[in-house]
């Protein structure tokens, strides 16, 4: 019986092995954007601490954005954790950031800016202090195209607290 | 051997039903009694010739598998059996008091199949001019299948896309509206009156004797819907003796292989329970009652379901040559409404914001009355009328009985009278009249809608010379829709020829035409499907198709191995195909339109290889097609170019069988680009590459209990793929099944 079964079992094993090589669809990687914010003028150019309540990189799907809070609440914008470093309250030359884009991943972020909360009103006291715009052409913001699983790295945004870009809201 | 009590019961019946050999009864003093059963299904086998070699005594088993041979014997004697489709058996009998239990093993390659769907009458499969595949009850049971669409997944040239049966590429994906395959239960159409779609859960599979799949345009026989072919579900006849059937199947889907797809800690489970009884109620009266319950937690979040169904049949012999069958079924399902995934990354979750209190309840029921009678030796009549109700309503938890205002109630009435007359030894004529009325009341329509289709058909089969059968026929259908002024006339001719070149080779060729009248939903529905709004389209025309096929079948013996092959080349032309057009700048919603002219040409090759001494059996099929959208010269959407199936069965000792099924289907090259922008990662798709394995143990001979045990695993390698946009197909699952027939 063993001899007779051998070819059949061998065929079965081949069939199973061949069909098990590929796993088909798989969840794509997390969509990630990372980069660095460079502060022009170094520490000395930073504003007074009482006007620096929060500082984040914000990614907007629409341009111009309606307003920061409205777009965030409406799912049209996402933001990084705070760039403020409590161990260096007086300022620093640069800060790295990374954000995971939640599903569903939009086709692009049309406007990416560093937003500063300068007052106590979280709904209104915001301004753009830096814009993602290669070659420092801050009046023409550049979109970041995306697809699910994209790993966008080396986004560089320059912030000059003494020379703000055009304000979108 | 069965237990003594069971045997005694069978013997009692055998005394009244066995066929007596043409021997000298007065001189006879010994009686051999017994029963013949199938070794795998445990079903009685009728028509088995049981004889005692060297004597003139013998008998043929009756419908209950029982036989009785009266004669003079010098014990011990040996009895032998003969029946097409089974291996011969020999059994020694020591005394006349012995009650025989003969267990027949099926031949692995069967050549004696009969079909009824080719020409609307019973005939040998080898005599029909068209391509027909059958799925037998044993295969369905072994695979642990509970729905008809599951049973169709290994039919050569056929693949299933959710609720669409795709015969040789005829169907795409149409949002659940309009089937391009006719679907029948014992010849009675069973397509919903509103969407014109097929509900696969209405017929409990355990009452099915076989499923016949007719390939190619077949409206000459089946009318509207048979654009790409027809699926005819044939139920098992009522046995002479009371038979009980019970089945319990439990299974789990294993946890997803990717962390992102794990939405729960434990493996989701499913449970199916079936119980049925069938048999003689009184003289000339038989009955069947069958019930099923299914509970599933689903393999994605928000896809639980609970369903139950009842099936009953009363068969009354109205005379020696006529019979009335009254069949009724009812089926109810309540399920979560998972429409598509959140994204491929979170493919087992519905989109954020999905209302999880929303449930979809559906009810299906039917009453089918059929009378079959022979008016003379050469004329037979079948008269049938049926009413098929389908309804659904969206409900809201916690009070799941309250409709939230979205509902549909539809009835499809079908009446048909058919006569088959043998005009001479060589000519058989079949003709009939049919009438269909579809009526719908739904929240998706301004008012109730009605559609009627009246039909007349006739066809002749002629055997001009030995081994050659010619078929010629046509059907005329007239469709009318209330509120629409135009009438739709459809003429569907067919012709075919079958020629036996020699004892092992048969050639066939056929031509046929098919059409599908648009469903009421396609014409009038104003509804929402997921994120889409469907707009009415009352100017739709019927879809049409023309099929041409040439085929050859051959059986050969090579080194003691039996090979049987079937090769078919086909060409199907489609006109006025109805496709959903998605939102654009010009149109704000989905609208069904006659937009496509298409051509699908291809080759289908299938076969079976039976190794010597029953070592193993391999069945396989391959199909290659070229599905072209003739209006754009692009490949048709939602069609696979290549399809391959294989099944390997290996009998092991002690009536255990190991089997593996493998199916591969090439990736859809095109889908709707527009829909992708609405569903995250909607374009994610892959080849289908699925392997199932199972171990079947039939305990009748080894433990003397009429029980079968099946342990199986589907999608063994946990291959991930989609059948429709934004929906993962079932991942790996494990199931255990116990069934008993007594």
Topology of helices and strands:
The complex is a heterodimer of chains A (169) and B (742).
Chain A: H1 2-19, E1 31-39, E2 54-60, H2 68-73, E3 77-79, E4 94-101, E5 108-109, E6 111-117, E7 126-131, E8 144-145, E9 151-159
Chain B: H1 4-17, E1 30-38, E2 49-51, E3 58-60, E4 66-71, E5 77-82, E6 89-93, E7 99-104, E8 114-115, E9 123-124, E10 132-136, H2 137-142, H3 148-151, E11 158-161, E12 164-167, E13 182-185, E14 188-189, E15 208-215, H4 219-222, E16 229-235, E17 243-253, E18 269-282, E19 285-296, E20 305-319, E21 322-336, E22 358-374, E23 379-396, E24 403-422, E25 427-442, E26 449-462, E27 468-481, E28 487-502, E29 505-516, H5 520-524, E30 527-529, E31 532-535, E32 543-558, E33 561-581, E34 590-610, E35 617-629, E36 634-635, E37 642-652, E38 656-665, H6 673-676, E39 688-698, H7 700-703, E40 707-714, E41 722-724, E42 727-728, E43 733-741
Parallel strand pairs in B: 1-7, 13-16, 31-34
Antiparallel strand pairs in B: 1-4, 2-3, 2-5, 5-6, 8-9, 10-15, 11-12, 13-14, 15-16, 17-18, 17-43, 18-19, 19-20, 20-21, 21-22, 22-23, 23-24, 24-25, 25-26, 26-27, 27-28, 28-29, 29-32, 30-31, 32-33, 33-34, 34-35, 35-36, 35-37, 37-38, 38-39, 39-40, 40-43, 41-42
List keywords for this structure.
heterodimer; A: about 170 residues; alpha+beta; 7-stranded mixed beta sheet; two-stranded antiparallel ribbon; 2 helices; about 15% helix; B: about 750 residues; mainly beta; 7 helices; disordered N terminus
What does this structure look like?
The complex is a heterodimer of chains A (about 170) and B (about 750). Chain A is of the alpha+beta class and about 170 residues long. Chain A is built from 2 helices and 9 strands; from the N terminus they run H-E-E-H-E-E-E-E-E-E-E. Chain A has a 7-stranded mixed β-sheet. In chain A, strand 6 (about 110-115) and strand 7 (about 125-130) form a beta hairpin. The relative contact order of chain A is 0.24. The model of chain A has no long low-confidence stretch (mean pLDDT about 85). Chain B has about 750 residues and is mostly beta strands. Chain B is about 5% helix and about 55% strand. Chain B is built from 7 helices and 43 strands. Chain B has a 22-stranded antiparallel barrel. In chain B, strand 41 and strand 42 (about 725-730) form a beta hairpin. Chain B is globular, with a radius of gyration of 26 Å. Chain B starts with a helix and ends with a strand. The relative contact order of chain B is 0.11. Mean pLDDT of chain B is about 85; it is low at about 1-30. The interface of A and B includes residues 5, 8, 15, 23 and 104 of A.
């Amino acid at each position: 019986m063993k001899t007779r079964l051998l070819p059949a079992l061998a065929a079965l094993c081949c069939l199973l092995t061949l069909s098990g090589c590929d796993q088909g669809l798989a969840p794509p990687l997390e969509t990630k954007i990372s980069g660095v914010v460079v502060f022009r003028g170094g520490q000395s150019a930073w504003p007074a601490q009482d006007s620096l309540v929060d500082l984040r990189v914000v990614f907007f799907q629409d341009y111009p954005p309606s307003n920061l809070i409205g777009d965030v609440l409406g799912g049209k914008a996402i933001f990084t954790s705070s760039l403020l470093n409590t161990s260096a309250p007086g300022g620093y030359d640069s800060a790295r950031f990374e954000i995971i884009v939640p599903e569903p991943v939009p086709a692009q972020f049309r406007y990416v800016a560093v937003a500063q909360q300068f007052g106590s009103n979280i709904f209104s006291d915001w301004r753009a202090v830096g814009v993602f715009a290669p070659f420092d052409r801050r009046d023409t913001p550049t979109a970041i195209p995306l697809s699910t699983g994209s790993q966008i790295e080396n986004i560089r945004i320059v912030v000059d607290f003494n020379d703000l870009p055009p304000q979108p809201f | 051997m069965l237990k003594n009590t069971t045997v005694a019961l069978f013997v009692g019946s055998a005394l009244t039903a066995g066929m007596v050999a043409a021997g000298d009864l007065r001189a006879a003093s010994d009686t051999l009694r017994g029963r013949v059963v199938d070794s795998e299904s445990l079903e009685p086998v009728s028509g088995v010739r049981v004889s005692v070699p060297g004597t003139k005594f013998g008998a043929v088993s009756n419908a209950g598998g029982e036989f009785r041979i009266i004669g003079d014997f010098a014990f011990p004697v040996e009895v032998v059996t003969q029946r097409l489709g089974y291996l011969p058996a020999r059994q020694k009998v020591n005394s006349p008091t012995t009650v025989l239990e003969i267990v027949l093993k099926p031949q692995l390659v069967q050549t004696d199949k009969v079909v009824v769907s080719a020409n609307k009458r019973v005939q040998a499969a080898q005599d029909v001019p068209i391509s027909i595949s059958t799925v037998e009850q044993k295969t369905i049971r072994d695979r642990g299948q509970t729905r008809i669409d599951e049973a169709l997944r290994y039919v050569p040239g056929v693949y299933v896309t959710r609720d669409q049966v795709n015969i040789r590429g005829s169907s795409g994906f149409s949002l659940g509206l309009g089937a391009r395959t006719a679907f029948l239960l014992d010849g009675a159409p069973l397509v919903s009156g509103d969407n014109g779609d097929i509900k696969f859960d209405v017929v409990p599979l355990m009452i099915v004797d076989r499923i016949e799949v007719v390939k190619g345009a077949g409206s000459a026989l089946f009318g509207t819907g048979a654009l790409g072919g027809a699926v005819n579900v044939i139920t098992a006849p009522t046995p002479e003796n009371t038979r009980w059937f019970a089945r319990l199947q439990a299974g789990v889907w294993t946890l997803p292989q990717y962390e992102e797809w794990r939405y729960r800690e434990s493996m989701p489970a499913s449970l199916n329970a079936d119980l049925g009884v069938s048999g003689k109620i009184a003289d000339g009266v038989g009955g069947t009652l069958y019930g099923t319950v299914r509970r599933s937690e689903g393999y994605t979040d928000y896809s639980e379901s609970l369903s139950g169904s009842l099936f009953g049949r009363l068969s009354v012999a109205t005379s020696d040559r006529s019979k009335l069958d009254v069949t009724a079924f009812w089926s109810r399902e309540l399920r979560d409404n998972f429409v598509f995934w959140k994204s491929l990354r979170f493919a087992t979750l519905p989109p954020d914001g999905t209302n999880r209190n929303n449930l979809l309840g559906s009810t299906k029921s039917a009453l089918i009355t059929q009378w079959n009678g022979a008016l003379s030796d050469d004329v037979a009549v079948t008269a049938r009328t049926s009413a098929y109700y389908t309804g659904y309503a969206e409900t809201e938890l916690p009070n799941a009985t309250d409709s939230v205002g979205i509902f549909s109630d539809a009835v499809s009435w079908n009446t048909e009278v058919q006569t088959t007359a043998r005009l001479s030894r060589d000519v058989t004529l079949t003709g009939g009249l049919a009438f269909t009325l579809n009526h719908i009341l739904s929240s998706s329509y301004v008012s109730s809608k009605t559609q009627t289709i009246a039909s007349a058909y006739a066809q002749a089969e002629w055997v001009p010379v030995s081994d050659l059968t010619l078929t010629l026929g046509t059907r005329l259908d007239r469709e009318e829709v209330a509120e629409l002024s135009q009438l739709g006339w459809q003429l569907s001719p067919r012709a075919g020829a079958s020629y036996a070149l020699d004892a092992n080779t048969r050639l066939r060729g056929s031509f046929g035409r098919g059409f599908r009248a648009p469903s009421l939903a396609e014409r009038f529905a104003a509804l929402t499907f997921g994120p889409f709004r469907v707009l009415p389209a009352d100017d739709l025309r019927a879809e049409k198709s023309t099929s041409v096929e040439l085929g050859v079948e051959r059986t050969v013996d090579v080194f003691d191995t039996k090979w049987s092959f079937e090769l078919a080349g086909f060409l199907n032309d489609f006109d006025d195909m109805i496709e959903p057009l998605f939102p654009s700048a010009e149109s704000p919603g989905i609208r069904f339109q006659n937009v496509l002219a298409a051509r699908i040409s291809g080759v289908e090759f299938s076969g079976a290889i039976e190794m010597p001494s029953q070592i193993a059996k391999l069945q396989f099929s391959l199909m290659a097609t070229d599905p072209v959208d003739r209006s754009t010269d692009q490949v048709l959407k939602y069609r696979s170019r290549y399809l391959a199936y294989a099944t390997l069965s290996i009998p092991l000792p002690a009536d255990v069988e190991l089997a593996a099924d493998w199916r591969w289907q090439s990736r859809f090259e095109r889908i709707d680009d527009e829909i992708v922008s609405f569903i995250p990662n909607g374009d994610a798709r892959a080849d289908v590459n699925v392997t199932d394995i199972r171990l079947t143990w039939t305990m009748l001979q080894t433990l003397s209990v009429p029980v079968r045990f099946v342990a199986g695993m589907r999608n063994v390698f946990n291959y991930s793929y989609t059948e429709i946009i934004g929906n993962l197909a079932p991942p790996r699952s494990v199931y255990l099944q116990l069934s008993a027939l007594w």
